[in-house]
TrEMBL record:
Keyword rRNA-binding (UniProt): no
Stated name of the protein: LysR family transcriptional regulator
Taxonomic superkingdom: Bacteria
Lineage of the organism: Bacteria, Pseudomonadati, Pseudomonadota, Alphaproteobacteria, Sphingomonadales
Keywords annotated in UniProt: DNA-binding, Transcription, Transcription regulation
UniProt GO MF annotations: DNA-binding transcription factor activity; sequence-specific DNA binding
Organism: Sphingomonas cavernae
Amino acid sequence: MRRLPPLTAIEAFVQVARLGSIKAAAEELALSSPALSRRVQALERFLGRALFSRRHQALVLTEDGERLLRQIAPAIDMLSLAIDDLSTNQDVLRLRLGILPLFASQKLMPHLPALRARHPELHLDIDTAAHSLSRLGEGLDVAIPLAREIDPALYSRRLGRNRVYPIAGRKLTEGPNAIRTPEDLARTTVLIHRDMPETFDVFRNALGLKSLEPIAIDHFDSGQLMLEAAAGGLGVAFMLDSHLEDADDPRLVRLFDVEVESPYSYWFACRPRALEARPVRLFHDWLVPLFET
């Protein structure tokens, strides 16, 4: 049997090829960039071929590198999964999930009984603290953030698309001073979520009302508190259509029959290598299809 190169060198090559960056691959493998570079160079010396070329500060696979990746990546993935399956306690699989409270209460919790029935061995540790993306790999396995886009160095899947809804309490739609047209927003306060800072700008620009200014703009880091503030007549909350529909709160109404697509979405996000872990894979394969219908 022919002598094989070190498995660590092959693993390094696959990660750099998938992420396109020495730095990102080093972070994924918990190595320094120089250490990772040495592993890739060792594989190139073993093969006697260059596997990468540098273009505009990015690493690009050569033809030999592409051919090698196609042939060995599936085997590496299968090896990783086999080791993970044998080394994991099959009775309890645990996933550390970072998630926003409103998404958890409206979108996740109603479906968890179905997840438990399908995968009784899978258990979730739910973390609703801020900055979930920055904590991936350091306390969290998966994050479900609300964002325009996700760092391409991470694996991500958009969980549906949404529209911008101006949401108000019924009090603001009644009486002589009721909010009836978008121009009337100049007489009230706008409520904005800190993770969706441009929502109001997107809405007014879509309506050709770039100069429209409300009395004030109040910022929240809690979607649930925004809905409560709107229900109490404290202002008009600019949120997603799903926030209103899933709230099913008779105190709240949508203002204006205007369709404006939101640039913000919820996302499934994790480090690429995390998908090799069985708890992450099971949760991903269950969750993502829920938002594709």
